[in-house]
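User: Reviewer 2 asked us to show a designed sequence for the structure in our supplementary figure. I'm pasting the structure tokens here. Could you produce the per-position amino acids so we can include them in the response letter?
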């Protein structure tokens, strides 16, 4: 068999656009024959997928799944919103979300996990890219667990059960009634979807974010021209307001508009039958943090025609 040199791998990468490891495997499978390796990659859908990998994928779906004291949430991105309505894409998001419950929130491990129809999740996604013709990425995953209690879920802008544009997990520790815990957790998850808090409690606020907020508030207060002692009190008051707006347990419950979330949780003990502690939450908003390219519709159509 011919030696698989770096030059051969480089040549195949340039011809196919596939990844380095895929090229090396293709050459190994085909005795170093570059043209045969190109065909091999095309049959596997790897060449087609790689050529689409540079496109911005900021649409797609958030998937959530729960199993008692554990819940998982996954974001899978696509280029357009149309793909989110594709049954095959929805099946993929649903399957990898269920897999995450056992695999955990390591995206690499999730991609390497066995897929229900055979192969790995990454291979299934690659085949889906080749079939649908859009770049898709398994972007992120999170898993929350409690030793006793429930992990509740909520999906906003749902397109199918457990699939939508915003996903939330809420972990509640308690030995109380699990069904009632899930109902409470879902209500709090809906609140989180609406308010997008930055942290669970005051102690877990990012120190850098707090420092930036204090600097801004201090400058604004100082501009009032009031004495330093008054300015200090003004900043303290505004920081309390910042906590009330941004920290989950300090926020006012959107359902009744008056009770703080920490009090909602405390009062739930009577209904649940045991003390309840809100220990963690996660919220995924589809495409958040992804820089989207600005283009008009005509340019998007032209780009699709050239693909």
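Assistant: Here is a per-position design you can include in the supplement:
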């Amino acid at each position: 068999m011919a030696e698989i040199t770096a030059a051969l791998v480089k040549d195949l990468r340039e011809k196919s656009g596939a990844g380095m490891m895929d090229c090396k495997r293709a050459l190994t499978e085909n005795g170093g024959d570059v043209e045969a390796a190109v065909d091999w990659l095309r049959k596997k859908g790897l060449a087609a997928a790689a050529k689409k990998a540079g496109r911005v994928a900021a649409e797609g779906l958030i998937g959530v799944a729960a199993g008692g004291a554990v819940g998982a949430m996954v974001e899978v991105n696509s280029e357009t919103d149309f793909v989110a309505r594709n049954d095959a894409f929805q099946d993929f998001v649903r399957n990898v979300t269920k897999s995450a419950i056992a695999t955990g929130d390591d995206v690499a491990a999730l991609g390497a996990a066995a897929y229900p129809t055979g192969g790995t999740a990454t291979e299934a996604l690659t085949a889906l890219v080749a079939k649908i013709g859009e770049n898709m990425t398994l972007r992120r995953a999170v898993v929350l667990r409690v030793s006793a209690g429930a992990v509740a879920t909520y999906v906003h802008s749902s397109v199918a059960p457990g699939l939508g544009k915003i996903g939330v997990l809420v972990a509640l520790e308690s030995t109380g009634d699990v069904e009632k815990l899930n109902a409470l957790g879902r209500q709090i998850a809906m609140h989180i979807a609406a308010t997008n808090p930055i942290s669970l409690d005051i102690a877990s606020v990012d120190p850098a974010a707090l420092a930036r907020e204090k600097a801004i508030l201090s400058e604004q207060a100082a501009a009032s021209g009031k004495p330093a002692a008054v300015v200090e009190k003004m900043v303290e008051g505004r920081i309390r307001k910042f906590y009330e707006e941004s920290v989950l347990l300090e926020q006012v419950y959107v359902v009744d508009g008056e009770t703080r979330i920490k009090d909602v949780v405390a009062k739930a003990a009577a209904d649940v039958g045991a003390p309840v502690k809100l220990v963690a939450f996660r919220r995924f908003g589809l495409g958040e943090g992804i820089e989207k390219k600005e283009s008009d519709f005509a340019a998007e159509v032209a780009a699709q025609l050239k693909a």
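For the response letter, you might also mention the following. The mean pLDDT is 86. DSSP finds twelve helices and seven strands in the chain.
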